[in-house]
Structure to design on (485 residues):
């Protein structure tokens, strides 16, 4: 389902793994909301990997999700306590950025997210398909009804320039 | 290659998206180490990519939260599922056993069930069948329900004053009491008012024979030649061990056999027996419907070993 882009597959996985994952977080000083939030983040990582063909089917999906949640939750706990990071008891999936790095990245990309909010719907779709879903220009043209890949590429160029202008204007306003 | 490969926007995009081979990547990175403006170009592109991805994740997370919440709202609480399943099971079981919704069934004239709510003074005169004075309550019943001919639907107006307090019933008269559970069901057409006479005509001799058999007690069922008395009590009076049965589909009911009467005390705050017309329909030797206005409560009456005349 996920490979086909059916988001309902995420809901099914959420329901299937919630008890186990939320149980882990609750047992480690977290709340139920923390657990559900962590699981949603893990599902998005899974979504990206499956959609980009980077997911290796070597373990059960539930094991994969729990592995991500354990690693991320331990980092959250370490950041809260300002203690050294304890190793997780499972092999960490490949998302080993530190909590601080994640925070810096979050702040750095905030301006892009704000600029994206201002873009028109077609540009949002083009840029998301290109940068996030890593889809080819042919795919984008087909999905959005452009006559061919060249037209889609031209649209992507315009959207990218518009996004960069917005980012620059936000950055200039923020500078003292 | 241009003097600065970062002048090629496609190449920058492919580099940042990881869409180039190892060897080419090494060559591009060698140039980056010596060109600070090129590094800036690549960083801007990387920021763009990460920002758009972060935005996409945010949108997906919002959608996921919304879908999960919708799923939670749709989910029926587990105890409700169990109680609904139990109610359905009972309805299906009864309908199969007694063919409520089709096929042959024993349709018994209302007089056989003799559903009544006796008034307090009337209660004193109730006698077992065969004892002297047995006709008297029957006559009073006719007065209470209006003149009633065979085949007519019995409508019993139950007033609060007609419901005696529990303490009025002497314990030594309590022959049998147990909890049974009424299932709220829709009323099948054949049980609606006015259809009995036609049904009896259609059944002809077979129907009449079945009725006679029933009267003779050949069909063993505890409702035979007995009166049914319907009472209502508030749910707060339910003993704690019965409260778990309270739900929308079932009505905990105390079944009592008192002398020659059957008494059903429905523990419900919603039925409004004191305001509504109540009818009792026997639908098989040991099951009946208590019909209150537009709804009906189905009961499987426990069979008690008795000797009939």
């Amino acid at each position: 389902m996920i490979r086909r882009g059916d988001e309902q597959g995420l809901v099914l996985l959420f329901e299937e793994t919630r008890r186990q994952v939320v149980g882990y977080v609750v047992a480690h000083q977290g709340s139920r909301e923390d657990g559900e939030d962590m699981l949603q983040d893990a599902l998005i990582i899974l979504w990206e990997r499956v959609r980009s063909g980077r997911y290796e089917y070597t373990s059960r999906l539930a094991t994969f999700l729990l592995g991500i949640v354990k690693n991320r939750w331990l980092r959250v706990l370490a950041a809260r306590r300002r203690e050294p990071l304890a190793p997780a008891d499972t092999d960490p999936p490949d998302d080993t950025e530190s909590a601080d790095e994640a925070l810096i990245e979050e702040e750095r990309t905030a301006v892009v997210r704000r600029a994206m909010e201002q873009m028109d719907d077609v540009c949002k779709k083009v840029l998301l398909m290109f940068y996030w879903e890593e889809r080819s220009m042919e795919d984008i043209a087909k999905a959005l009804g452009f006559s061919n890949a060249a037209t889609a590429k031209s649209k992507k160029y315009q959207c990218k320039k518009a996004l960069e202008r917005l980012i620059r204007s936000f950055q200039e306003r923020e500078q003292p | 290659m241009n003097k600065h490969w970062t002048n090629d926007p496609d190449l920058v995009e492919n580099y940042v998206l990881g869409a180039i081979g190892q060897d080419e990547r090494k060559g591009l990175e060698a140039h980056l180490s010596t060109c600070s403006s090129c590094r800036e170009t690549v960083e801007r592109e990387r920021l763009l990519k990460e920002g758009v991805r972060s935005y996409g994740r945010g949108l997906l997370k919002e959608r996921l939260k919304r879908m999960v919440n919708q799923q939670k709202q749709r989910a029926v609480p587990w105890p409700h599922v169990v109680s609904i399943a139990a109610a359905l099971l009972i309805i299906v079981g009864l309908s199969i056993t007694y063919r409520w919704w089709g096929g042959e069934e024993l349709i018994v004239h209302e007089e056989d069930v003799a559903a009544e709510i006796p008034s307090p003074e009337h209660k004193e005169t109730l006698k077992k069948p065969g004892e002297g004075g047995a006709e008297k309550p029957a006559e009073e019943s006719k007065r209470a329900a209006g003149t009633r001919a065979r085949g007519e639907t019995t409508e019993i107006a139950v007033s609060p004053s007609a419901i005696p307090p529990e303490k009025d019933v002497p314990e030594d008269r309590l022959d049998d009491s147990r909890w049974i559970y009424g299932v709220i069901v829709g009323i099948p057409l054949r049980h609606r008012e006015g259809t009995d006479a036609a049904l009896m005509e259609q059944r002809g001799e077979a129907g009449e024979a079945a009725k006679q058999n029933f009267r003779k007690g050949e069909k063993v069922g505890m409702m035979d030649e007995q009166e049914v008395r319907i009472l209502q009590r508030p749910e707060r009076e339910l003993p704690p061990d019965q409260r778990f049965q309270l739900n929308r589909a079932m009505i905990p009911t105390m079944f009592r056999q008192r002398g020659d009467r059957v008494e059903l005390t429905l523990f419900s705050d919603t039925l409004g027996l004191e305001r509504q017309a109540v009818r009792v329909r026997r639908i098989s030797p040991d099951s009946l419907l208590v019909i209150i206005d537009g709804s009906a409560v189905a009961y499987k009456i426990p069979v008690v070993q008795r000797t009939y005349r």
About this structure: The first strand of chain B starts at residue 156 and ends at 157.
